[in-house]
Amino acid sequence: MKTILLSGNTALSYAVKQLDVDVISAYPITPQTTMVEKLSEYVANGELNAEFIPVESEHSALSSVLAASAAGARVFTSTSSQGLLLMHEIMFITAGLRLPVVMGIADRAVSAPINIWNDHSDIMAQRDTGWISFFAESAQESYDRTIQAYRIAEDENVHLPVNLNFDGFILTHTYEPVTPIEDELVLKYAPKKRRKLVLDPNNPMTFGGLGSPEYYFEAKYQAIKALENSLKTIIGADKEYAKISGRGYGLYNAYMTEDSDTILVSLGSIGGSIREIVRRMRRNGSKVGSLSLKLFRPFPAKELAEVLSKTKSIVVLDKASSPGAIGGPLFLEIQATLKSFDLNVPVIDIIAGLGGREIGPDDIRLMFNRGLKVASEKKVDRLLDYVGVYL
Amino acid sequence: MPYKTLKDLPLEEYFGPGHRLCQGCGAGIIARLVTKVAGANTIIVNATGCVEVSTTFYPDTAWGVPYIHVAFENSAAAASGIRAAYNAMVRKGIVDKNPNVIVLAGDGGTADIGMQALSGALERGDHILYICYDNEAYMNTGIQRSGATPYGAWTTTSPPGKLSPGQKTTKKDLIGIAVSHGIKYAATATVAYLLDAANKIEKALNTPGATFMHFLSPCTPGWRIDTANSIKVSRLAVQTALWPLYEVVDGEYITTVKVPKRLPVIEYLKAQGRFRHLVNKPEEVAKIQAYADKLAEKFGYGPISP
Q1: How far apart are CA B122 and CA B132, in angstroms?
Q2: pLDDT bucket at B56, cuts 50 / 70 / 90
Q3: CATH class of A252-387
Q4: Contacts of residue B52 in chain A, CB cutoff 8 Å?
Q5: CATH number for the domain whose boundaries are B6-299
Q6: Helix or strand or coil: residue A30?
C-alpha cells in the first residue's frame, strides 16, 4: 500500500479502522486525544462500522469495552497517565476474566506535580495487572503492533488483554511516513471469529462470579500461566506478520551488543536516539551497544539473558521510578534476569527523563561512560543514579 | 397493563432456587421478578453486593440468563458496553437479536460509588434498564450507612448515641436525579406490590433509551425484622407514604398505587429494630412524619386515618 503520513495516534486509529473493531470507548486525555478524535471521525463518516461510546471517565471506558468484549465484540480503548491509573482496578478484572481487550497507552508522567509529558510511570504502575505490554519506537511500529495485538489477544491459547505503549508526544504527535498493509490482509491476518464463551442469550453463562479460596487460586494460576505462555504466540504472530508486511520487530532490538563492553537497556522511543549515539561512540572506538525492549510483559528474561551474557557491564535506563526500591522497574527485572541465569555482569540503573525532561545526546554518552567505567573497573560504585536532574 | 393478576406473570423461571440470599430477602424476589418479566432474551449486569456474592458462588450460579459482574461502581458502564456490542453486532449480521440489558445494583452501587457511571449512561441515553435494589445500607459488608439510608436509621456506621439520632441525613432522591437526565421512564417499586412492579419493568423495557427503577428492598438482618415480615414492612413503607409508588413518564410524575388512608410512620418504624432507639422520641418521630407528609402531598396520598 501507499506510504502515508501518520502520527503515532493516527497510526493506531488507522489500524483500528482496518481491524473492523465493533466497539470503541474512550475518554479524552492529553496526549491520547487525537487518537480518539480520529476514531470518532471514522465512525461518524461511516469509514468504520462501530459504536463509539463517549464515556464520562476512563474507569467507564475500560469497563464498557470489557463488557462489550464479554458480549463477543472486538473492542478498543486508549488512555494515558491519570486515566490509566483510574483504570487500574478494571485492568486486573479484564485479565482475570480473560478478555481480549486491546488498549493504546500514550505514556505520560503521573501527578503530582501535574505534567502532561512523557515518561513510563503510568504503565509501570500497571505492571502486575496481567496484561501483555508492548513498547513501540515509531509510528510504523505502533501501527504494526496494533494489528498483531488483536491476533495475539484473541488467540485461543492466550485470551488476555494487550496494551500498546507509545511515548506521549514523542510518538503520539510526531508525523512519520507509515506504510499500512491492505485492509483485506489485515483481516486475513487477524480474522474476526465469534468466540464460544460470550454473553449470549442462546447459551446463558455467568461471568465474574465469586471465586472462593477453593477456586480463586486456580483461576489466577491459569491467567498467570496464559501470560507466561503467550510468549510463543507473540513470537509466532510477529513472524507471520513479517511474512505479509516485510516488517517484524521481535522481542527486542539489539544493536552492536555482540562485542560490546557495555549495553544500555531501554524501553520505547529513546531506542533510536541511543542507537545513534552508539554509532557515534563506536566511530571513536568505544565498544558500546543498545538493547531496546519491545515487550515488557511477559518479560522475555531468557531471550534477554542471551544478549546480556555477551557484554561486560549493563546500564539500565528507567523512565520511571519505584520509590524506595533499590532501582527502577526495568532495572529490577534486568537484575533478576541476570541473577536467575547465573550471569555475573555488573549492572547499574539510571533514572532519567521523568516528566518529559529531555534525554539528550550528552546524557546518553554519560550513561555509556558510566557503563564503560564499570566494565573497566569491574565494580559498581553507585547502583542507582539520576541523570538530567538539577540538584 | 399486561399483568392484572399474579396468574398473568410468566411461568418461566430464570432466577433459580438454591441461591444463598437470606430468607425474606427483597433482592431475591426482585431478581426473580425482573427475569420473569424480561424473559430469556436478557443479559444481566450486576454490581458487587449481596446479589452477586449470593448467586454466583463458583461453581454454582442462580442465573438462567447471561450474567456478568465486573466491579462495584461500573455496572452502568458495563451495560452500555454490552448494548453497544449488540448494536454493532446486529448491524454487522454477527448476531440476529438485540437482548434486554438490565443492571441490578444495590443502593451503595447506585447512590454512592456507582453514581458517576450511572449518570454517564443516563445522559448518553444508552438503551438499558438500570434497577437499584435499595436495602438502605451496605448490607453485604455488614450494615454500614449509605447515601440511601433513611433519617434516624441505625447502621453500624450511623450508630445512635448521645450525640446522634442514628443516620443524620435523609435519602438521596434517586428518581429525581435520574429524571434530571431527561430519561423517558423512571419508577419506584417494592416487593409488596409485585404487579405494580411487573408492569413497570415491562414498561421500562419497552421504552427506548435509558430507564431507571428504584426498588425498596427489605433486608431482614439490616432492618432487624423477622424473616417472615419483609413483605409486610415493605407494604407499610408504601402505606405510610415513606415509599410512594409512582412512575415518571417523559418527566410527568404519576402515582401508580393510591393510598387513600395513610398510616402514621410510627407503624413502619416500630416494625423494625433499626428504628428501635427513636420510637419513644416523639421529636424524632415527628421529623420522619413531616418527611412522609411532604411525600404524601406530592403523590396525592390521603390523610392519616386514626
Answers
A1: 14
A2: very high
A3: alpha beta
A4: 208, 210
A5: 3.40.50.970
A6: coil
